[in-house]
Specification:
The structure holds two protein chains of two kinds. Chain A has nine helices and nine strands. Chain A is an alpha/beta fold. In chain A, the strands form two sheets. Chain A has a seven-stranded parallel β-sheet with strand order 3-2-1-4-5-6-9, sandwiched between helices. Chain A is globular and about 55 Å long. Chain A starts with 9 loop residues before the first strand and ends with a helix. In chain B, helix 10 packs antiparallel against helix 11. Chain B has a domain at 176-395: Vanillyl-alcohol Oxidase, Chain A, domain 3 (3-Layer(aba) Sandwich). Chain B contains 14 helices and 21 strands. An eight-stranded antiparallel β-sheet of chain B has the order 16-12-14-13-19-20-18-21. Classes of the chains: A alpha/beta, B alpha+beta.
């Protein structure tokens, strides 16, 4: 159960090897999270993430593997995660995603389509399974990693940003649909975060690290925010940026 | 329906069923159920997210008081209603918590104590018979049943649902209390005075301003006993009046900041006399000052508050000082803390009081350092052989509960006799896994 400070005890992480998810798990495990189910593609990376979660206080860290390009398998992956949790789940973190290489991917129909599967279709399929289970248990929260890139899609990252935009909007509607069920959905909209996913990419203004974002997540879970911006300045900044004329927007974002 | 405890944290969406009979209860217990009275537990004891909550306030009925002071009442009767019904005939609660707005069943499920624990024990110690419905049937129990009676007191509703209670009231000849008040400029002073003199009074409580004097605290000690009608020259036995004032809306976040709390505490301290003997106070003023302001929990704003109440043995008086000092350093705003002495524990396996000290702190949710501060205090309290009060708790870790309540295993075994399939539960139970022993 979540306690008075919004600290969960049982957590499922889809995309458990992501740097950001791991930073969040470290904080949750050092508070009250004793059962952390980690799901991802690479068993070795999952094992390392599990060991880290235990170092920070988790006592049970079952692992589930899945391939985020296999949308038909998402339901099975979610079912396995809930079974592994061994009881009711307080928080599901959806941290599945990949940045890709737009320069190469935009000319490659297979790669472009796969990016949309990983960043949009698979998370949507997984959310269907998560939603049904949490609504049935009558409580729980879903944290979905969206991105500031979803608010206005940048020319240099439209494949990633566009898929995230779809996920972000869908989750907005899903969150509203959950009113009265005891279940809620929290959208995380971080700015550009320095992680292994973004290594080598040029850093835009307001680039941040995983620790400040993880801190914002834990604070947001404690205060019951429905949308978490990190850094917080992005919220007013995007309000302005999303309404810039297209020419000016291109000049600002992709000099 | 969205439910929370009095602290207004950790909301649960539950189906609330109003219970009006034992037969209906027996039916409800074919599925998980969390019993709820007036919702004055601070945390998650009377809610079940995604499940069913039984509202027991409909189990009413108060008998005549017999010549020995024995009264039988429905478990859904509030202490307020019981006082209204019995005070005019010269009877009062043998033990009363800080509010009358709790049900009798809830009070016993928490095994509440009052300002007289050092001499009269908990409310449970004055119960001569209880009736409860559990999945194994209807049970009538008296103290002669030993552990099968005591297991239900302090059980937080996890062994069965109390439906009717017989308890022995206290004979009084007036509706007034004679109160001695003393002011102390630090915590050591008030603690010494309580150790030295509490045995001379039926009731004793100290209010501590934790933020004062760099963490050394300051305090107002009030002690007293019922006034004799003959001495007062008036034998008025008028029950306390209902609250005239209410907090109409939830306060904006941050109303209770360090500055406003410090100002309030300052006013309150200055208002108290340095030393005054034999002041005549009304029962309500002395026992239930906060009942005069309905919905006062709304003052803490939308995020609510937690109450941290712990008990430690006499040998660990230092823990009280350290807790007050840490709180002062943390700059988490704290309204007056309540300090009391406890007498011997009763035989109930999950009862909170144990001989020594108890300190209760009201703390707004919000300051980022608060969760870790309280986790740190859990460590100190556990090390000292103490515990925190489950009726107040909303944030303890399961392992801490295990360390603080070493009789949980015994509790789980006895509870299984009354509820083998673990139907009786709550968010508190699920969070702390109390029935796993």
């Amino acid at each position: 159960m979540d306690n008075a400070f919004g600290q969960p005890q049982t957590v499922v992480v889809l995309g458990g090897t992501s740097d950001l998810a791991r930073a969040v798990v470290r904080r949750l495990a050092s508070a009250r999270a004793d059962t952390v189910v980690l799901a991802g593609r690479d068993p070795e990376a999952l094992a390392r993430a599990a060991e880290e979660a235990r170092d920070f206080g988790a006592t049970a860290t079952p692992l589930v593997t899945f391939d985020a390009t296999d949308v038909a398998d998402a339901g099975r992956a979610v079912a396995d995660c809930f079974a592994a949790a061994g009881g009711e789940v307080d928080l599901v973190i959806v941290a599945v995603g990949r940045l890709g290489h737009q320069g190469a991917d935009e000319d490659d129909p297979v790669a472009a389509g796969e990016g949309a599967l990983v960043n949009f279709a698979w998370p949507v399929a997984a959310l269907a399974g998560v939603r049904a289970r949490l609504v049935a248990q009558g409580h729980g929260r879903i944290l979905v990693m969206s991105s500031v890139a979803a608010i206005r899609v940048r020319p240099s990252a439209y494949l990633y940003g566009g898929a995230k935009a779809g996920l972000d909007r869908l989750c907005g509607g899903l969150a509203d649909s959950l009113a009265g069920t005891g279940v809620s959905l929290v959208l995380l909209r971080p700015g550009f975060v320095r992680t292994k996913m973004t290594a080598g990419e040029p850093e835009p203004p307001l680039t941040t690290g995983v620790e400040p974002v993880a801190e914002a997540v834990v604070r947001g879970l404690a205060t019951g925010q429905s949308v978490i911006w990190s850094p917080p300045i992005l919220r007013p900044a995007m309000l302005v940026l999303r309404h810039l004329p297209a020419g000016l927007w291109r000049r600002v974002m992709d000099r | 329906m969205r439910l929370t405890g009095w602290g207004r944290t950790a909301p649960a969406t539950s189906e609330v069923v109003r219970v009006s009979s034992e037969a209906q209860l027996a039916e409800l217990l074919s599925a998980p159920l969390a019993p709820r009275g007036l919702g004055r537990s601070y945390g998650d004891a009377a809610q079940l997210a995604g499940g069913r909550v039984g509202d027991l306030t409909g189990l009413g009925g108060i008998s005549e008081v017999d010549a020995d002071g024995l009264v039988t009442a429905g478990a859904g009767v509030s202490l307020d209603a019981l006082v209204r019904a019995t005070l005019p005939a010269g009877w009062f609660l043998p033990v009363t918590p800080g509010t009358r707005q709790v049900t009798l069943g809830g009070a016993l499920a928490a095994d509440v104590h009052g300002k007289n624990h050092h001499r009269d024990g908990t409310l449970g110690a004055h119960v001569t018979r209880l009736r409860l419905v559990s999945p194994t049937g209807v049970h009538e129990l008296t103290p002669a049943d030993g552990e099968r009676f005591w297991v239900h007191l302090g059980a937080m509703g996890l062994t069965g649902v109390l439906t009717e209670v017989t308890l022995r009231l206290l004979r009084v000849t007036s509706d007034r209390v004679l109160v001695d008040t003393e002011r102390f400029s630090d915590l050591d002073g008030v603690m010494a005075a309580m150790v030295e003199g509490d045995h001379r009074y039926r009731y004793s409580v100290a209010w501590v301003d934790c933020a004062a004097r760099g963490g050394r605290g300051r305090a107002v000690l009030t002690r007293g006993d019922h006034a004799e009608g003959a001495d007062l020259g008036s034998a008025s036995l008028e029950p306390p009046r209902p609250a005239l004032l209410a907090v109409p809306v939830t306060a904006p976040p941050g109303l209770l900041s360090g500055a406003t709390v410090a100002a309030f505490n300052e006013l309150w301290f200055r208002r108290a006399p340095r030393h005054r003997v034999g002041e005549v106070q009304r029962l309500g003023t002395f026992f239930h000052p906060l009942d005069g302001l309905r919905d006062w929990n709304r003052l803490y704003g939308p995020r609510g508050f937690v109450q941290y109440q712990f008990a430690v043995p006499d040998a660990a008086a230092e823990t009280v000082r350290v807790a007050v000092a840490r709180l002062a350093v943390s700059r988490v705003p704290s309204f007056l803390a309540v300090l009391k002495r406890f007498g011997p524990a009763d035989p109930a396996p999950l009862s909170f009081p144990q001989p020594g000290w108890t300190l209760a702190l009201d703390l707004p949710v919000g300051p980022p350092g608060l969760p870790a501060l309280l986790d740190g205090l859990d460590g100190l309290v556990t090390e000292a052989g103490g515990r925190v009060y489950l009726a107040k708790d909303a944030r303890l870790a399961p392992a801490s509960a295990r360390a603080m309540y070493p009789r949980l295993g015994e509790f789980a075994r006895l509870a299984a006799d009354f509820d083998p399939a673990h139907r009786l539960t709550s968010d508190l139970d699920r969070r702390l896994r109390l029935r796993e022993g």
